[in-house]
Amino acid sequence: MMKFRFRRQGNDPQRERIKQDLFAFNKTVQHGFPNQPSALAYDPKLRLMAIGTKSGAVKVYGAPGVEFTSHHKETATVTQMHFLLGQGRLLSLLDDNTLHLWEINVGEGSPGLEEVGSFCLPGRPGFESTSATRVTVILLKRSCDLLCLGTEGGGVHFLEMPTLTLLDTQALVHDHIMQRSVVPEEYKCGKSLGPVESLREHPRCPNKMLIGYSRGLVVLWNYSSRKVENLFLGNQQLESLGWERSGKTFVSSHSDGSYMTWPVSSALSTQQPSTSVIPYGPFPCKAINKIVWRTTESGAPLVVFSGGMPRASYGDRHCVTVLQEKMQVTLDFTSRVIDFFTIHLIPQFDNPSALVVLLEEELVAIDLQTVGWPTIPCPYLAPLHSSAITCSYHISNVPPKLWERVVAAGLHQSPPPTWPINGGKDLALEPKHNGLLLTGHEDGTVRFWDASGVSLKPLYKLSTANIFQTDCDHNDGLMQGAEEEWPPFRKVGCFDPYSDDPRLGIQKIGLCKYSGKLVVAGTAGQVLVMDLSEEMSAHVINIATIDLLQDREGFTWKGHDRLAPKTGPISFPPGFHPFLLVQCMPPAAVTAVTLHAEWNLVAFGTSHGFGLFDYHRRSPVLARCTLHPNDSLAMEGPLSRVKSLKKSLRQSFRRIRKSRVSGKKRVVVSSPTSKVQEANAQLAEQAGPHDVEVTPVQRRIEPRSADDSLSGVVRCLCFADTFLRDGTHHGPTMWAGTNSGSVYAYALEVPSQEKFSEHSVEAVLGKEIQLMHRAPVVAIAVLDGRGNPLPEPYEVSRDLAKAPDMQGSHSVLIASEEQFKVFTLPKVSAKTKFKLTAHEGCRVRKVALASFTSVSSEEYCENGLVCLTNLGDIHVFSVPALRPQVRYDCIRKEDISGIASCVFTKTGQGFYLISPSEFERFSLSARVVTQPLCSVDVDRALCTGPPVRPVATAATPILHVALQSVGHVMNSAHSSGNSEIQAGLSSPALDSPNSSADITLDTTGDITVEDVKDFLTVSPAQGLQTNACALPGGQLIHSSSSL
């Protein structure tokens, strides 16, 4: 007999209003360094910097917290950018030969960066081809009323600004130059002079400008009289030009690695260079791409240029050279130089105070006022990928004491920077709570970032490489020896994509924010436990080894060796000091780690099993092997290249056979059952009430094979003070979930604080749950009697959080890749569930518990289960009822690395990598939103002509200056709506998602069951089994609900 199951009546309007006050999806800000930068601009009046990228993004930066971002509607490379000085306007040139004018909207509404105009230089049929009108160089005059465009055809065109109106009658073509001057034949390119390489306005006479052609010819052109005043004949291909401040001299750089200085006379003449220098000659050198000449009060000019290195010896180096009298420094970078500019004073002398260099992978600032020209740490735009990010970890509501100690440790590494790009004002209020983002890297470092506001500020860097024996010291010695040679190289920047040893890579991080205990786990099975210290120290690290195989026969590790730790005392600067190294054997990558500082315990898992260690007594507590007999891939390791072709073929044929068999079982074309189902579906569509929600059709999920490779990988670990033995006595427990759907729960005997040194911790296996679909267990969380997550260690003892409800029955939430399920404790009976894969056709990738506070009432909040799937969408479910609340599209499903890198916060925000160097920040909470709130004082009275009309464009700003400050309440509800919501919040009849009293477990169509083994319900004579490695047969106490 077929049964219809209808859920309760459709959406409750009152509940929908509450959800609108709780949940809202926004992509708010991007942290880190822009991916693939291609252009740079600087406004000395507003002290703003702009960066364009190959994907068409435009980003404007000022003081920390002052950011504007937008995007061209065309996905094209930004090749050049120029600010209209003081106006808050920016001009960009794309590689499709289009010009775009951007404007910082400072009016009312939502300030941001918007496109207000565009222009494409038209071709001249019969005279110039399309390539001839391609723009090669842009000159924006200081008055900002005229734009000069140099082209490949040798012409110079003029546009009126800011209207982008072409002055066709003013165009300068090569005929004008050759008619008004005597140009030698060797400087002609057929009938033209070749592409225009450089345009420079005269610093004293605005109506004059230098026009540089590719073959070395430079012309001083008078725009007013339309005459050639001087000819300068260079003998090498021209790359760039730069004026000296007085206008009496200019400098040119060339393709052979030379630069020349030229005197400028008032009489019409053909000039020769006064000096010609090849800084790194006499052997052939690469081109000097850009050169600038700055005057100083001391009288000795400061010359800065990029390139020019000897081809044979250092042709692969990326360098910028700074010259002043006898002092010369060759700044050696690890990525390609895109562009640079100097920050200098406007009065009598340039007196450059800083040099800012944009590289392909980072931004570097050099202090030119301090002896030695040191680097200036960047308060933002830090290269997150200086070493590849391998894991991320976020801590919300960091206590002030821990925050101050971490900041102090960072100041010992580098002093607070005086950032020269400080335009605009950050109007955001100080955040109520500080947030830390920790990133683990391939080179064994952990970086601490201030994630409280718009700017992701670097705070502190922790390195673990000095604990182990590597080749770092030897390589550093070789580099030091090379730096003493000519050219005078100086390594600058922190981008270093190469790791000395891939085994150093950080895989998992855990931090107790109240005790300052940090656990860091790596690729070679190393687990480091650290403490935060304000003093320098030199001490010996305690080393312990745990064998997770437990002498199992038939398993041979074929992967990498363990890292050899250094012997003897190791010195550490102020910061986190490791005092314990736990080495897992075999040395496979650590896949899960958790820390409970109040119990002095650290738990860790690999692809072979999991272990528990008492770091106070320096003694192991537990080691459990989770390997299946067929887990051969688990013995090879991530760095092993030993692959069994026979094994792979065998598994492939097994999958094919299994799919054929299951397909034959399912496909019954003319069965009566299928016809009945079709008739029932039609009946439900025609006669069913429209306001009733029908239970959706579920996909059939095939159970996974027990002999799948890597089934023993430990995916998650957690500690909880809950009921595991019986319903009246609670105590410490540890939970572990594996890749094969197994969950292990251990009851822990933890001595009191006074007896830590006298008694050891003991672990007793309490429950073993096998999810019959064998889907990997992604997360485990224990809920108290009210359905709330348990507080963190020390929160209750230090009166920082409300004590959990120990009167009602606890429950455990187990999240697998296919579904979420809540079990009651201690009986481990199914309470409620949601089949995500069966309903949505996706798999769980990331899970977290978050607290959502209402916009209308700060007193009302709900706990939610946040889930990111393999399709890139985010779901929020109520806890513990597991009712779907909202769903948002967040990440492209093709962006596998972005999905894998996602990390959630406890306040409903999240981060994921949109490129190797950038985090995208998003918010799921309607109340907690981190967006810029800033202002820029612009002077647009300078511009003449009609106002610029905004153009219709799809390039809406990615982020706007927010109306609310960081974490501030966005009160969008009307007063009448507030009263209704307040009444709804206080209504006892409200169907709260936190209540689970009326929840019935839906078992319709279940075809599988899970086994729960209870190892604590044994006879008194038998006693408790304490050997976790030799498990006795358990009693099957529950087999009625599916997974």
Task: Write up this protein.
- This protein is mostly beta strands and 1043 residues long.
- It contains ten helices and 67 strands.
- The strands form 17 sheets. Strands 50-51-52-53-66-67 form a six-stranded antiparallel β-sheet, with no helix packed on it. It has a five-stranded mixed β-sheet with strand order 15-16-17-18-22, with no helix packed on it.
- Strand 55 and strand 56 (820-824) form a beta hairpin.
- Mean pLDDT is 83; it is low at 1-7, 474-483, 661-674, 683-694, 944-1000, 1002-1008 and 1018-1043.
Task: Give a quick summary of the entry.
10% of the residues lie in helices and 38% in strands. The protein has 1043 residues and is mainly beta. The strands form 17 sheets. A six-stranded antiparallel beta sheet has the order 50-51-52-53-66-67, with no helix packed on it. A five-stranded mixed beta sheet has the order 15-16-17-18-22, with no helix packed on it. Strands 24-25-26-27-37 form a five-stranded mixed beta sheet, with no helix packed on it.
Protein traits:
disordered C terminus; mainly beta; cytoplasm; phosphoprotein; six-stranded antiparallel beta sheet; single chain; elongated; exocytosis; 1043 residues; disordered N terminus
How would you summarize the topology of this molecule?
Elements (H helix, E strand, L loop, with lengths): L5 E4 L3 H10 E10 L4 E7 L4 E6 L3 E5 L5 E5 L6 E7 L4 E6 L3 E8 L6 E9 L14 E6 L5 E6 L4 E5 L4 E2 L7 H6 L16 E6 L6 E6 L3 E6 L4 E7 L4 E6 L5 E6 L4 E5 L5 E3 L3 E3 L10 E7 L7 E6 L3 H4 L3 E7 L2 E7 L3 E7 L10 E6 L3 E5 L7 E2 L12 E10 L1 H14 L11 E2 L7 E8 L3 E6 L6 E7 L8 H12 L5 E3 L14 E6 L6 E5 L3 E8 L3 E3 L2 E6 L22 E3 L2 E11 L6 E5 L4 E5 L3 E6 L4 E7 L19 H22 L5 H16 L4 E3 L19 E9 L8 E8 L3 E8 L12 E9 L6 E7 L27 E6 L3 E5 L5 E5 L1 H5 L3 E10 L7 E9 L3 E6 L5 E6 L6 H6 L1 E2 L4 E7 L2 E8 L8 E2 L39 H12 L24 E4 L20 E2 L7
Parallel strand pairs: 18-22, 27-37, 42-44
Antiparallel strand pairs: 1-49, 2-64, 3-4, 4-5, 5-6, 7-8, 8-9, 9-10, 11-12, 12-13, 13-14, 15-16, 16-17, 17-18, 19-20, 20-21, 21-23, 24-25, 25-26, 26-27, 28-29, 29-30, 30-31, 32-34, 33-65, 34-35, 35-36, 38-39, 39-40, 40-44, 41-43, 45-46, 46-47, 47-48, 50-51, 51-52, 52-53, 53-66, 54-55, 55-56, ...
Helix pairs in contact: 1-10
